[in-house]
Design goal:
Layout: H1 3-36, H2 55-58, E1 76-79, H3 97-105, H4 113-123, E2 127-131, H5 138-152, E3 169-172, H6 176-189, E4 197-200, H7 206-214, E5 219-222, H8 224-232, E6 243-247, H9 249-254, H10 258-266, E7 277-282, H11 287-296, E8 300-305, E9 312-313, E10 320-321
Helix pairs in contact: 4-5, 5-6, 8-10
Length: 323
Amino acid sequence: MSMEVMELLLQGLILVRVIRLLVVQDMMMMMNIQKNTFGPESTKLAADGALPSSEAEIFKNITPGINFSKYQDIPVSCTGTNVPNPVASFDNAGIHDHVLDNIRCADYKDPTPVQKYSISAGLAGRDLMACAQTGSGKTAAFLIPVITRILKEPNIERVRGGYKAFPTFLVLAPTRELAIQIHKEALKFSYSTYLRCVVVYGGAAFGSQAREVERGVDILVGTPGRLLDMIDRGKISLSKVRYLCFDEADRMLDMGFEKQIRAIVEQRDMPGIRGRQTTMFSATFPKDIRQLAADFFKRLLIPHNRKSRFNYRLHNPSFKICS
């Protein structure tokens, strides 16, 4: 055997060993990633930094908002048919045990006024429109009941893998900052469950978000433009959405998203109003918001502060808000 052949064989053996070493390193890295992620099926924040790697990290920097413990007598009006009683505490509200543990880890003591009514209405499967200011705990108010209902309904079909995702719970937000914030809260309240949360928004790479979506989604948080883009490019189907929430709906309309919102809800494959539970949170209720509610909701429950300046009736007689 010539020296040239021997040298080629030696180089080949060295190359094989290098490849094996790289494969082993990749496997070790993947094992570390899986070990450090919280929950059995986690997702990473596309452009907002690394995924929290432990329970302590996900529940750090708790910002519960306004302290309502001293204001339990704030007058709240909730109008509608057969209005559910507001919850008095998280412990006795019928919340899933995993979610209740996460509420305690987040250091939530007493439900805020909007949470008292929103959680009871959400757990009862009622459509809801709430007037709530920033810092009032509204994000937890719409996440806690829906996550609880999903966990308590094992017959919900969950799709994993494949080219297209089929979320069960869709949250629409006007800005990427708010979408990221809601996503973090969804990760917090679904911690240690099988639910997978993903966020999509404009201004970040489409490809990385699409790959996260392809891994499967239970709770999807998104801005209207990026979400519509992903739907039209075949990455997301809304055919299995059973829970829909609009957060800061007035801001979405102020930013000109009504066309995209109507396309998502009315012109794609989302179930109709009888096939889903819909909630809307808004700081104000101008005429265009009331019209949106009239088109997207069934019988409506509307809790708001009695001292609110809003006093009107919606076009549909079954939709009303009283001072």
